[in-house]
Task: structure prediction
Amino acid sequence: MAMLDGKQIVLGVTGGIAAFKACSLIRRLMERGAAVQVVMTQHATEFVTPLTFQTLSGRSVAVDLFTARPVGPLPHIDLAKWAHILVIAPATANIIGKIAAGIADDLLSTLVMATESPVVLAPAMNANMYSNPIVQQNIEKLRALGYRFVEPEEGILASGDRGVGRLAKLTAIIAEIEAAISGEVTE
Ligand SMILES: Cc1cc2nc3c(=O)[nH]c(=O)nc-3n(C[C@H](O)[C@H](O)[C@H](O)COP(=O)(O)O)c2cc1C
Result:
C-alpha cells in the first residue's frame, strides 16, 4: 500500500515563482495514493492558472473564501476538517507572516487558523527576503508552535542571484508530509 493511500491533502499555493513546481508535487502526491485539494491565494493565480491545478488534481480549485465550495458550504471549516494534512508549497514570506500574526484574510490563511491537522510549509523566496530577521523570527515562532518547515535550498534564484531561497526538492517535501502523517515529532 502506498504511504499516502487514502490521505486527503490540502495543497496551499501562494504567489511566488515556484508556484509552477506545485504541478509536479500534485502528481507525485496522487501517485502515492493521496487526494489533493488545491487552495490558491489570489496572488498565486498570477503565476499559474487554477485551470492547470484543477486538471492535474481532478478537483475544482478553491481561491475565494466567499464563493469556493470544494467540500461543503463553509469552505474554511469544511476543508479544515477534510484535510488530514495541510501543505503550503511554495510558501511566501507573506503567508508565513500572516500565519505568525494570526491573520485570516483569505481562504488559505483562514483555513490554516481553523485546522487541527499538521501544517507543513515549504518557503521559497529571494535570499534577502528569506534571511530577513522578521521572516526568520516568524519561522522560529511557528516552529515552536508545531508548524513543520521544509527548508529552502541554496542555488540560483529567479532573480539570477545565488542564495538560499529555492523551493526544497519535491522528495524532501514529500518526506516531510509522510513524517507528519505518520506522527513523527519535528526536531
Ligand atoms: C514576479 C514576482 C515573483 C515573486 N516571487 C516571490 C517568491 O518567490 N516568494 C515570495 O515570498 N514572494 C514573491 N513575490 C511577492 C509576492 O507575490 C507578494 O508578497 C504577494 O503579496 C504574496 O501574496 P500571497 O502570499 O497571498 O500569495 C513575487 C512577486 C512577483 C511580482
In short: The domain at 8-181 is CATH 3.40.50.1950 (Rossmann fold). The mean pLDDT is 94.
